[in-house]
Known about the structure:
Layout: E1 2-11, E2 14-24, E3 29-33, H1 40-48, E4 53-62, E5 65-66, H2 72-77, E6 80-83, E7 90-94, H3 95-109, H4 117-131, H5 135-138, E8 141-142, H6 148-162, E9 166-170, H7 178-192, E10 198-202, E11 216-221, E12 224-229, H8 232-240, H9 242-246
Parallel strand pairs: 3-10, 3-11, 6-9, 9-10
Antiparallel strand pairs: 1-2, 1-4, 4-5, 7-8, 11-12
Helix pairs in contact: 4-6, 6-7
Amino acid sequence: MLEIDNLHAETAGKQILQGLSLRINAGEIHAIMGPNGAGKSTLAYTLGGRPGYDVTAGSATLLGQDLLEMAPHERAAAGLFLGFQYPVEIPGVSNLQFLRTALNAQRRLRGEKELSGGEFLKVARAQADALGLSMDMLKRPVNVGFSGGEKKRNEMVQMGIIDPRLAILDETDSGLDIDALRVIGAGINTIMRRPDRAVLLITHYQRLLDYVKPDFVHVLAAGRIVRSGGAELALELEREGYGAIAA
């Protein structure tokens, strides 16, 4: 699914990723944990193609395609979804308009038939119902006036509608209360825990992993993975902190 080999990347002239290698197979959920400044968000932004994050060495492929040679919209059409720690607001653009435009743009790039208004509304309603987001909220401007939990639910609805092959979720648990965390965890499991899908969860804390059980946990420190293990590694990090493990 995703293969990263010896990836180096910089932003604002500062080298952040320092030879990161990782392989994620279809059907797997991987979690990356690490201290502040380790390079977790830089990894997500680099894979997503965010401007200002420049690869200086190494490679990354998604389903055999060179991810780093693609524009951001091409990466999305190839099956990559990037969830943000702080979803942005887009005043003046309704959720429904935004999502239908995004979905049909991807379908065109893949040579698939675009969805009609009625077909799209059926898909959107099913995903919104599953995440407890009303259709009235989908008619509002993207994330404008939404609480933190509502923004994350909205992002999960987006993910369900887009239906990516690989979801990279950057601290999607940030700012969530227990009830919202449970809903978001259930949404990730429903949408992405499938044999032909994969997830890369980036998080500081164990709490999201109580709801989305990872197959593998990796510790990122100083721009590279320094330790990997099963779900029990996250519990060890919760007990011991990053100091001794990431040293």
